[in-house]
Amino acid sequence: MIAYPALAEIRAVDQVEGFGDDPWWIIAIKCLAIFVILVLMTLFTIVFERKVVAKMQHRVGPNRVGPKGWLQSLADGVKLMLKEDIIPKAADKIVYVLAPIVAVVPAFLIFAVIPLGPEVSMFGQTTRLQLTDTPVAVLLVLAIASVGVYGLMLAGWSSGSTYPLLGGLRSSAQVISYELAMGLSFVGVFLFAGTMSTSGIVEGQERLWYGLILVPSFVVYLISMVGEVNRAPFDLPEAEGELVAGWGTEYSSIKYALFFLAEYINMVNVSALATTLFLGGWRAPWPLSAINDGMFNEGWWPLLWFFGKVIALLFLFIWLRGTLPRLRYDQFMKFGWKVLIPVSLGWIVLVAGMRLALNEGVQREELMMWGGGALAAILVASFVIPLFTERRADVDEDEPSAEPEFDPFAGGHPVPPLPDQQVPAVPVTAGGTADETTESEAREEGPSA
Amino acid sequence: MELYAPMIGLIVVAAVFAVGSVFASSMLGPKRFNRVRLDSYECGIEPTPQPVGGGRIPIKYYLTAMTFIIFDIEIIFLYPWAVRFDHLGLFGFVAMVTFLFLITVPFIYEWRRGGLEWD
User: Fold this and answer.
1) What is the mean pLDDT of residues A152-171?
2) Residue A436: its pLDDT value, please?
3) Is the distance from CB of A194 to CB of A204 less than 8 angstroms?
4) What is the pLDDT of residues B56-92, one digit of tens each?
5) Which residues have a Cβ under 8 Å from the Cβ of A205 and sit 6 or more positions away?
6) What gap in Å lies between CA A273 and CA A286, rounded to an integer?
7) I need a surface site. Which of A106, A326, B51, B74 has the fewest CB within 10 A?
8) What sign for the dihedral angle of Cα A132, A136, A139, A144?
9) Which of A85, A114, A157, A328 should be substituted to probe chain B, the one whose Cβ sees the most B Cβ atoms within 10 Å?
C-alpha cells in the first residue's frame, strides 16, 4: 500500500523556509544587485572569451581599451548604442522591435531562484543571498528558458528575410531538442534531493555533490547546456558559412547588442544552474570546506566559491569554442534525439531502480555489482549495435555509386571537377541543327561570363 | 504568492533596461536612411521576395515540435514522481517504468520510420 502524505504535509510543501518575508527594500537591493551582477558578468565574459581564444590561437587579443583591454566590451556596447537603428522595409515592425526585449527579459529572470549563498546580515536584516525560492524553482527555470526561445524565433520570423527565417527555425528546433535532454538530466537530481527548490538541492549536497554521484546526468547536462544556448560547437543557428548571422542578420544597433547580452546571460544562467544542481552550489570545495568547522561556508565567502565555479564553467564554454569545429545540422539533431534522450531515459530507470533497491533493504555491495553490470552491458551494447547497423548502411550506399559521369552543368550552373573527375569533351557543334547550336552556345557562354 | 512577488521586481528592472535602451538608441543614433539600406540582406544580390509572415515552414520542424511536446509532458510527469520517489515505493517505480515504456514504443516507431532524420 502507498502511504499518502497527510494534507498538512502537502500544505507545508507549498512554502520554502526562510523566503517570502524580506522587507521591500531588501528585495529592491537584491533585484538591482542581480541586474548589475549579470551585466558585469556579460561584460567580463565577452572580454574573457576573446582573451582566452586569442591565447589559444597565439594572438594577443584585445589590449587597448582600459587596463589590459578589460573595458573593450563596455566600449563596444556604448558604440552599438550610438549606431543607426535600421528596421528593414520587409520587417514586421512591432514584432521586430519586441523580439530583442522578449529575448533579454527572461534571461535576467532565471537568476532570481539561483542561491548565491547562505544567510547573511544585510543592514541589520538577516536574509538569504537569493532573491526568492519556490517549491518548483527548477521547473520555473525551465519555463523561463523556454520563453527566451520566442525571442530568437520571432526575430527570425519578423525580419522578412531568408537567412533570419532559417536561422530562427533552426535555433528553435535546436533549443527545444536539447531542452528535453536537459530536463531529463534533472530527474536524477530530484530523485536524490527529494525537492525541486534550488536552496533545498544545495542543502542536499552538503556531503557529496550530485555531479559526482550522477556522472551521466551531469555529462548529459553539460552537453545539452551548450546546445541550449547555441554556443560552439552547436552554434548552427548563426553558422556564418551558410546563414550569414542567422536570426540576427537584419538587426543592428542596440537591438543586436541586446541579443548578444541575452546570449551571454544565458551562458551565465546555465553555468549557475549546473553549479547549483551538480557542483554543490555555493559550498566550498572539499578541502576548504573542512577548514575551521566550515568557516568558508558562512557569511559572504560562498559568493567566491559560487562565482569561481560559474567562471570555471564559462571557461569550459570558451575552451570548447576554441577547440571544436561546428557540427553539421543533421549530426547535431541526430545526437540530441538518438543519443542524449535514450541515454537519459535509460539512466533514469537505472538510478530509480537502484535507489528503490536501497530503500527496500538490498545490500549496497550487491547492488553496486548489479548496477555496474547493467551499466557495463548497456555501454557495450551501445558501442556494438551501431557498429553493425552503420556498417551495413555504408555498404548499401556504396554499391550504386559506381562512377556516374561528371556533368559540369548538373546544378544549372558551372561547377569545377573534383580531383578524380574528368570533364567530358565539349561536343563540336558546327553544322548541327539550330536548336543544338543555341544550346551549346549558351553553355559555352556560361563559364566565361 | 509572496515567493513569486520578488520576481516581479526583477521583471520590472529588466524590462525598463531593455525598453529604455532600445528607445535611447533610436534617439541617439544617426538616421540616414535610403532605399538600399532598408532592403533585406542577401549577399549583395536582389533579395528574394518573402511572403507576408515568413511563408511555409518545412514539415520537419512541425514533427520536431510534436515530438518535443510529447517528451515535455513525459518530463512534467517525471518531476513530481522523482521528488516523491522515496514515498511511492515499488508501485511508483513500476508505474513510471510502464509509462516510460508506453512513450518509448512510439518513439522507436518514429525513429524507424525516419521521423528523426534531418538533412
Assistant:
1) 81
2) 47
3) yes
4) 666 677 888 888 888 888 888 999 898 888 888 888 8
5) A280, A281, A283
6) 20
7) B51
8) negative
9) A85
Which amino acid type is present at position B7?
A: M
| H or E element in which residue A317 lies | helix A301-323
Predicted-assembly ipTM surpassing the 0.90 threshold: no
Nearest CA in chain B to A80: B25
Predicted pLDDT at A434:
47
Instruction: Please state the pTM of the whole predicted model.
Output: 0.80
**CB within 8 Å: A131 and B79:** no
Chain B segment 9-38 residues within 8 A of A by beta carbon are: 9-15, 17-19, 21-22, 24-26, 28-33, 37-38
* Helices (H), ranges, B29-58: none
Percent of chain A with pLDDT over 70: 83
CB contact under 8 A, A5 and B87: yes
A419-444 per-residue burial string, b: 16 or more CB within 10 A, e: under 16: eeeeeeeeeeeeeeeeeeeeebeeee
**Partner residue opposite A105 with nearest CB, options B6, B15, B84:** B15
**Which chain A residues are closer than 8 Å to B91 by Cβ?**
2
Reference A117, options A126, A108, A104; nearest CA is A126
How many residue contacts between A and B have a Cβ separation below 8 Å?
224
Class of domain B5-113: mainly alpha
With a pLDDT cut of 90, the percent of chain A lying above it is 12
Interface test with B, best of A254, A327, A328, A343 (most B CBs within 10 A): A254
For residue A20, the chain B residues in CB contact (below 8 A) are 2-3, 5
H-only helix segments in A14-160: 24-56, 72-81, 93-109, 137-158
Would you list the domain boundaries of chain B?
A: 5-113
Tell me the average pLDDT of chain A: 80
Residue pLDDT, tens place only, A211-249: 888 888 899 999 998 988 888 788 776 666 667 777 777
Nearest-CA distance B60 → chain A (Å): 9
Measured CA angle at A294 (ends A215, A117), to 5 deg? 70
How do residues A372-410 score in pLDDT, each as one tens digit? 888 788 778 877 777 776 655 555 555 555 556 677 777
Give the position of cell 543592514: A123
Angle at A75 between CA A71 and CA A79, to 5 degrees: 170
Q: How far apart are CA A116 and CA A282, in angstroms?
A: 6
Of B10, B41, B60, the CB nearest to A31: B10
Query: What one-character-per-residue DSSP string does A130-186 give?
Result: SS---TTHHHHHHHHHHHHHHHHHHHHHHT-SHHHHHHHHHHHHHHHHHHHHHHHHH
